[in-house]
Amino acid sequence: MKKQQDDEQQLLQQRMREYKQRHRELVQLRKEFKQQREEFKQRLVPAMQHARQVKRENEVLRLLLHLKQQEVEQQMEEKNERLLRRHRGPSFQAVKDFIGGILAPKEITSYKRLEKVQMGLRHTKD
After folding, report:
1. Which residues are in coiled coils (predicted)?
2. What is the pLDDT of residues 31-41, one digit of tens each?
């Protein structure tokens, strides 16, 4: 009976030692895990900030590229329009209406008079 109690006591003490050992290992693992997590966060946060900054910069560059493309397209359209006007020439009626309404007090009825009005010789005779 006494031997059985001693055996049970020894078994209980052994289990307590094993439990304490496992507990210490778990505490140590928890500390290591927390430390690794903090190290990871310290590396991750700057990387995430850099990624966000790069994303913003890319968005700005994309917008600038879009604006530049629009500007180039507009310039090309204006250039094409100028070339078309140069080759086609303005319609006499449109020029007559424009200049006649703004510069000339009397109606312009000939190219010769139109040219004089354009040159500022409005008051000379034909």
Report:
1. 2-43
2. 999 999 999 99
Q: Please give the pLDDT value at position 126.
A: 46
The answer to whether 84 touches 90, Cβ cutoff 8 Å, is: no
Q: Can you tell me the mean pLDDT for 52-68?
A: 95
Q: Could you tell me the sign of the dihedral formed by the alpha carbons of 60, 63, 69, 70, in that order?
A: negative
Count of domains in the chain? 2
Please indicate, yes or no, whether residues 53 and 10 belong to a single structural domain of this protein. yes
Give CA–CA dist 22/28, Å, rounded.
10
CB atoms under 10 Å from CB of 108, counted, come to 21
Could you tell me the residue range of the domain that residue 21 belongs to? Answer: 2-63
